[in-house]
Amino acid sequence: MTAEKKIVTVPDFRYSPHIDHVGVEERASRFTKRSIKAESKLNGLKLTLNMIDLTTLEGKDTDGKVKQLCYKARHLHDAYPGLPTVAAICVYPSMVSVAKKALGNSGINVASVATAFPSGQASRDVKIRDVKYAVNNGADEIDMVISRGRFLQGDYNFVFDEIAVVKEACGAARLKVILETGELVTYDNVRKASDIAMYAGADFIKTSTGKITPAATMPVTLVMLEAIRDFYYKTGKMIAMKPAGGISKSKLALHYLVMLQETLGEAWMNNHWFRFGASSLANDVLMQLEKERTGVYQSANYFSVD
Amino acid sequence: MAKATKNNTLKLKFDTLKYAPAPESKSSAKIDAQYDLFINGKFEKPLSKKYFDTINPATEEKLASIANANAADVDKAVKAARNAYNNVWSKMPTKERGKYIYRIARMLQERAREFSVIETLDGGKPIRESRDIDIPLAANHFFYYAGWADKLEYAFPNKQPRSLGVAGQIIPWNFPLLMAAWKIAPALATGNTVVLKPAETTSLTALKLAEIIQESDLPPGVVNIITGAGATGAAIVNHPDINKIAFTGSTDVGKIIQRAVAGTNKKITLELGGKAANIIFEDAAIDQAVEGIINGIFFNQGHVCCAGSRLFVQESVYKIVMQKLKDRIATLIVGDPMDKNTDVGAINSKQQLETIHKYINIGKKEGLEIFESNCVLPRKGFFCKPTLFTNVAQSSRIVQEEIFGPVLAIQTFRTDDEVIEKANNTAFGLSAGVWTDKGSKVFNLTSKLRAGVIWANTYNKFDPTSPFGGYKESGFGREGGLHGLGAYLKL
Questions:
Q1: Which of A225, B111, B358, B432 lies most in the core, judged by the most C-beta atoms within 10 Å?
Q2: If phi over 0 gives left and psi between -120 and 50 gives alpha, with beta otherwise, what is residue B432?
């Protein structure tokens, strides 16, 4: 894939490309027909582990819970030597300092949701303070939510400006922009929101908060990957992708990797450019890796639940 | 922000051009060393005493010996069909006829895996296609026409539909079992008996279908399947006791057949070649349209009479369409048809590969811009890289003539009227595709394009309920759907 370097002008988002929903769903289902075996499967499973943002986003989260999750992030399954670690831990802003301390020099990033997650229904001032609080406590990545209400009202400038000021507040932290595709409903809206986020300065675009059903689906993710590709064609700038919510099985994760590989290519096939937002995916991947290694499935009791 | 002290980004090869091999097992496929002719419910040795080899085009290895029927064998088959027609099939209550067709459909479903494997071994198409498209669709044709068997008077109100008699059916090698189902199912549902000849390179699934027909207890002689090449087909066409000829294949052979039946009382339907226009407008959903281009020309290695082999792209989106098309071609996996990940399999025969190369050379000689996939082809077997010719004009031979391979001729256009004129400026008229987000444009084009099948925002979609057939040199008569019944009835 090649891109031309050009002067980037912000397009009129009303004219974002249209998506044919029958066609995109058909294409997404084609990726699930790939049969991933042997070395491809092993590499795919390890990549999946390495791309996970291990997540806990609950009202009842405590320091203790987050510390345990961080330990799990560093020691996924020590019975299997040489496993990679996950990419990041994803927590609320109030838990960032705990997570940062617990992860130490492991190389695992701390991602924090912010901007009045998950609804985003707060004033801009509150959102910016939320972001700054997380960043000051050591967050490496910020997962913001867009104002879906304003988007659905057609107030694209508001959404654009909000992302831009949040990006500024992030400083050196990488910004993930959550579109909450389950509330945007149509593929046309998903595409439009992806374009707005990328032109406004997103480092990642992300499907969902995990609090709304449906969360990530393959067709929605494909629409976003194609938006990333078009943005790359136009600007030469790579944007990362994070589907979140609803991906709990390794087989589905491998389908996503096939989709990533065949849409954006080799350069995106690592955790700098792709993440899975998931809490239960890791254990299923571990179970599959053990099955590949030993030839038999072990019960869930053999994998830690943190 | 604290600096990460360790790099935890893993880099592993998930796929480079190809995933790890994922071959379908051959164990479900039982292929005999030799196949005889299926006449009057039994497998009989050919009177010709001759056999020919059928090979796997992906490996060039021999799969089986196939009987080569001569005129005497054809005569025997036609006599069996006539006898079954006069004494059994035409007299049977229609709902009983339906039961047999349903039974064949169910048995085909039960043995779908075996049929898929054999279709791929014998014909070279990817196992994904024979498994997901050819075999299920063939079973669906039997199911669909089984339903019509006892409802013909409702299909044609105020008429008295009567069967024709013995149908001689000659089918091509691109969708061997599907074409057999396409021909046999409506013929049986309308009360006719059948003599069917599959193409010489792909006889196996038709002969396996004969096994199913035998097991289904269909009365002997109702379906006869005989094998052979052009001479066998000619003997069917010229046989005086055949009432109807149904042919799917090349335009050249279609013309010979039409000459041969001129002056006889034989009814005829011809489904011949095509050179379909696939038209991308600037307001189309481009990513999905690119999928449609891929599906239009690389489905079944381009061995599709309705393949979208002439691509028309509106000039304002030409650059982006080409960029995306080339990126997409890079992800196509070309190779072993038995691998579940293969997108483009083997060319059906050496002869067809030579024809495709001939046209690629013509394109090169004409000085056209060529783009080939950078995939690596297997050393054995008949394979062809997905190929694009860009900046071509209407006057080019690769635009005018059917190539029947993975070769796409790409032209640009400026306005609706221009593309309608260019799309219709061909000797063929089988199919077309229109890609636009605007409904009114779809209706404008579909009413003005001279093609039997026109797809809007999709391509190469087939369904038993939908009629299929062409204009001009693409033939006449319709198969499939309600229309398909009419071709086998006196109304």
A1: B432
A2: beta
Chain A nearest CA to B33, separation (Å):
31
| Fold adopted by B277-463 | Aldehyde Dehydrogenase; Chain A, domain 2 (3.40.309)
pLDDT in tens, B315-355: 999 999 999 999 999 999 999 999 999 999 999 999 999 99
Q: Does domain B34-272+473-490 have CATH number 3.40.605.10?
A: yes
- Name which of A87, A107, A135 is nearest B5 (Cβ-Cβ): A107
Residue B1's pLDDT band, with cuts at 50, 70 and 90, is very low
What are the chain B neighbours of A172 within 8 Å (beta carbons)? 1
Residue A53 touches chain B, beta carbons under 8 Å: no
Kind of pairing, strands B407-413 and B310-314? parallel
B contacts of A4 (beta carbons < 8 Å): none
Q: Could you tell me the two tokens for B22?
A: 């994922």
Which residues of B fall within a CB distance of 8 Å from A188?
none
Task: Tell me whether the CATH fold assigned to B34-272+473-490 matches the one assigned to B277-463.
Answer: no
Active site residue B305: yes
Closest Cβ opposite residue A84 in set B8, B14, B292:
B8
Would the pLDDT of A236 be above 50?
yes
What are the pLDDT digits (tens) for B367-395?
A: 999 999 999 999 999 999 999 999 899 99
Q: Strand (E) positions, chain A?
A: 52-55, 88-91, 109-113, 141-145, 174-178, 204-206, 240-242, 276-278
Ordered structural domains, chain A, with CATH: 17-293 (3.20.20.70)
Q: Map out the domains of chain B as residue ranges.
A: 34-272+473-490, 277-463
A-chain residues near B130 (CB < 8 A): none
CA distance B482 to B331: 40
C-alpha B480/C-alpha A5 separation (Å) is: 52
Q: How confident is the model at residue B4 (pLDDT cuts 50, 70, 90)?
A: very low
Q: Do B285 and A20 touch (CB under 8 A)?
A: yes
Q: Which of B7, B13, B285 sits opposite A18 (nearest CB)?
A: B285
Distance CA B152, CA A284 (A): 55
| Distance separating alpha carbons of residues B281 and B210, to the nearest angstrom | 46
C-alpha distances in Å from residue B396, one per residue of A127, B262, B307, B369, B428: 62, 34, 18, 12, 15
Cβ–Cβ below 8 Å for B20 and A20: no
B19 interaction partners in chain A (CB closer than 8 Å): 34-37, 40
Contact residues, A window 70-109, toward B, CB-based 8 Å cutoff: 84-85, 87, 100, 105-109
* pLDDT bucket at A2, cuts 50 / 70 / 90: low
Tens of pLDDT, residue by residue over B94-108, are 999 999 999 999 999
432-471 in B: which are within 8 Å (CB) of A? 437, 457-458
Q: Inform me whether the pLDDT recorded for A306 exceeds 90.
A: no
Nearest to A138 among B1, B323, B457 (CB): B1
| A266: CB partners within 8 A, 6+ apart | B16
Residues in a beta bridge with A141: A111, A174
DSSP assignments along B37-53, one per residue: EEETTEEE--TT--EEE
The distance of B444 to chain A (nearest Cα, Å) reads: 20
Number of other CB atoms surrounding residue B231 within 10 Å? 13
Are B1 and A105 an interchain contact pair (Cβ–Cβ within 8 Å)?
no
Structural contact between residues B414 and B315, judged by C-beta atoms closer than 8 angstroms: yes
pLDDT of B12 reads: 85
CB A257 within 8 A of CB B13: no
So what's the pLDDT on residue B3?
46
> pTM for the complete prediction?
0.95
Q: What is the pLDDT of residue A6?
A: 64
Q: CA angle, A41 as apex, A38 and A47 as ends, to 5°?
A: 140
